[in-house]
Every structure is written in structure tokens, then in C-alpha cells.
């Protein structure tokens, strides 16, 4: 089967074309533009693994009722195109939980993003406390040479990793970071390198915590920076001004925008003169003068005068919403290197594990020096 579209100036006429797609991936990208199926967004809470997200995406795309599914790890959003959305949520939850048991799939609530509070979450504080206690036990084991301290430290730091690895093995999934960490550190214990086993697990947990904090902050800051949608607008009703949710404003409504406020919706000035800062939307550094009959777009900041603006576009169609959706859609489109790395990892990890096992077993059978060869194998 062939198709005639071009990508990156290469003709794609086979199952694996020069641009790094597989034929199935290309078909899905075509569907993304041509599909008339209902599109819905879900949020995947507790998603902490980009590789797991790729596995979830593949399994969801394999569902017969799904035309296209894309997971954006940066925003934890799952976009699904399907004409059977009403029966899909439970299946999505089942698939995602089978890959990463802690995740919860919920329907997306389209509301302005709030910047995350400074500091770390309760879950991250719990993780940090566990690392500190495990680290203290590790130091006691090093200083006093008490093996039991190393065991306690290892269980505190690596207990959850061992559990996850065991669950994945039961499901037939061996080659992930939990399996690799468990295999390497348990092998180190087996040859008596207690300090190295615990040390490796300690650094892994610290790195995992820092990564989690950094990703969460970046995700919130990026989305908050591009999400300029207002929560409320000041609606002018005869001689009074009332506050209503921005999503309830209709075309033809008159909204009041005070100096210093962000213009909430696209519209046209019917009363007042001012200068507006368009830099948040267009990047233009010079404020723009507006007067009656001037068109204004949402996201810009009113810098001086009081303005009455007639709404021309509702919140869903306004510039601020389109900017947000453009960023989300850009994140959804996977570059060629991303697709290559996903395919490469499927081969790389099993090969490395196999080579490590061969390094440990083959020379040891010949020389009888098991410890000598197990050490480089687990390294």
C-alpha cells in the first residue's frame, strides 16, 4: 500500500520511509488532519514516565473505536479522536493503569491554569523524608560497618522500585528502569557490594525526585505563561456592571476593561480611548492607540483609559484560547528524533541486558571467577 504525501522533502512510498515514520504512524498523522471524529481531551494524573506515556499512546491507538490518540507528556494531556467517546473513559483508565498503576484518567476541565505554589508537594515532601532517613541509615552503615543498616537503607530507598519491578514482571514487562535498577542493585548485594548497591539506589531516588520537581514546575509555568484566558469579565448591563464567568459572555455583550486589566475577549471598542500593550500576544513593544471602532484582541493589556468593548468572539474562539491550543498542539506533534528514540529504546535496553548477562555468565563459567565478572556486568 502506498501514499503520495511528502514529508521533509522525501517521497514516502513504503512501510518505512526516509523521514523516520512507520507507515502506521504516517496514516495516523493523516487522520489527525482529515478525521471528522469527535475529539476529546483527558488528563492523566500521576503520569511520571515519558516512556510509559508512549506505551499508553500505542495501546490506545490500537483500540478499534479510536481513530487517533496522542499523549503530551509535558501537559499530561491525552487527546482522543473517536465517535464512541461516551464508553471510552473506563477503557482508557484500564489501559493506562496497566502500564503505570498509579495513574488516573479524568476528563479535561477547560479552565485557566493557575501557577503552582512555591515549594514542593506533599507527595514530594514524603519522598524527600524517605530519602533523608535512608541516607542517614546509609551513612551509619558506612561509618559503623553494620550490614543491617545497609539493608534498612536499601529497603527505604528502593522498596517502591522493587515493588514496581515485581508488578511489571508479573505483567510480562521486564525492560524498564525499575527492572534495571532492581537487577543491578540486587546483584551488587549478592556479591557483597552493599555500599555500592545502596549508593546507586540513593542517587537514583534523588535524581528521580529532582526530575519530578523540575518537570512539574516547568509544566505549570509553561502552561500558565501561555494561558492568558480570564476567569471572569465585567459585563455592562444598563447602568450596572456585574461580574460573570468569561465563558458565559456572548457575542454583542459589552464588557468593561479598566486600566491595567488584560483585555478578556476579542472585540471592538465602543466607548473610551486608551493605549494597549500588545506585547504579550504580538511581541510589539510600542503600545497601540485605540478609540471607538478600533478592533482589539484578547490577551493585550489596557494601559491607560477606561474601555467599553463589544464582544465579537466568545472565549472559545478568542485569541487567548487559540494561542493556548496552538502550544498544546505543537507539543502533541512528535519530531523525527523523538520517534527514533522511542523505537531505539525498544531494541537498546534488551540488548544491553543480554550483553550484561553474557558478560557475567560466559567468562565466569570459563574462569570460575564469578565476582570478578559480575561486577563489570552490573556496572
Set out the fold topology.
Layout: E1 6-7, E2 10-11, H1 23-34, E3 39-45, H2 50-61, E4 66-72, E5 77-82, H3 89-99, E6 104-107, H4 122-144, H5 147-170, H6 177-190, H7 194-226, E7 232-237, E8 240-245, E9 254-257, E10 267-271, E11 274-277, H8 279-282, E12 288-290, E13 295-296, E14 301-302, E15 307-311, H9 319-332, H10 336-367, H11 370-378
Antiparallel strand pairs: 1-2, 3-5, 3-6, 4-5, 7-8, 7-9, 9-15, 10-13, 10-15, 11-12, 11-14
Helix pairs in contact: 2-3, 4-5, 4-7, 5-6, 5-7, 6-7, 10-11
Task: Briefly say what this structure is.
It contains 11 helices and 15 strands. The chain has helices at 23-34, 50-61, 89-99, 122-144, 147-170, 177-190, 194-226, 279-282, 319-332, 336-367, 370-378, and strands spanning 6-7, 10-11, 39-45, 66-72, 77-82, 104-107, 232-237, 240-245, 254-257, 267-271, 274-277, 288-290, 295-296, 301-302, 307-311. The strands form 4 sheets. The chain has a 6-stranded antiparallel beta sheet with strand order 8-7-9-15-10-13, with no helix packed on it. A 4-stranded antiparallel beta sheet has the order 4-5-3-6, sandwiched between helices. A 3-stranded antiparallel beta sheet has the order 12-11-14, with no helix packed on it.
